[in-house]
Amino acid sequence: MSKKEIVLELFDEGFNCAASILAGFCEDYDLDTEIALKLACGLGGGFGRGGICGALSAAVLVVGLKYGQYIPGDLGTKANCGAKRTQLIDMFAERHGSPACRDLLAQIPDTSGEDYPKRRHNFCSGLLEGTVDLLEELGY
To answer: Residues 30-83: pLDDT tens digits?
Structure first.
């Protein structure tokens, strides 16, 4: 399965946006899927308060898995990770209009015939696909 398929399957199974994104990248970074799902669970829905989108928050965790500092005093690695994080956030905001969950959810179209939870799920599925695309474009 592709990362995108894994992410969307997890989301369809009821995992939140953040958990789905992080778990989709586990294999590449030797991260246990159960741990990833637990670790990112609290990030969904913009930390449950409409803040930074959970998918984006988990994508920043993926940045850390690839570029994060783990050696004390390694300020070059720390700065590089920060630059990669900023690049990701800026590109996400440019593509989706905002990094904030509340702003993104405000973009959900009011289509007749579909209840809000279904519209939200469909909208967020698109954001998840876009987040995976962005991470893959950036080499994650």
So the answer is: 999 999 999 999 999 999 999 999 999 999 999 999 999 999 999 999 999 999
Cα gap 38→98, rounded to integer Å? 26
Nearest to 104 by CA among 67, 52, 26: 52
State how far the alpha carbon of 20 is from the alpha carbons of 2, 30, 36, 72, 111, in Å.
13, 16, 9, 31, 26
Give CA–CA dist 129/36, Å, rounded: 18
Nearest to 132 by CA among 2, 44, 41, 1: 2
Q: Which of 94, 87, 88, 27 is nearest to 59 (CA)?
A: 88
Which residue bears the tokens 């904030």? 100
- Sequence spans of domains, the chain: 3-137
Global model pTM greater than 0.85: yes
CA–CA separation, 113 and 94 (whole Å): 30
| Adjacent-strand bridge partners of 52 | 100
For 79, the token pair is: 């700065």
pLDDT at 98: 97
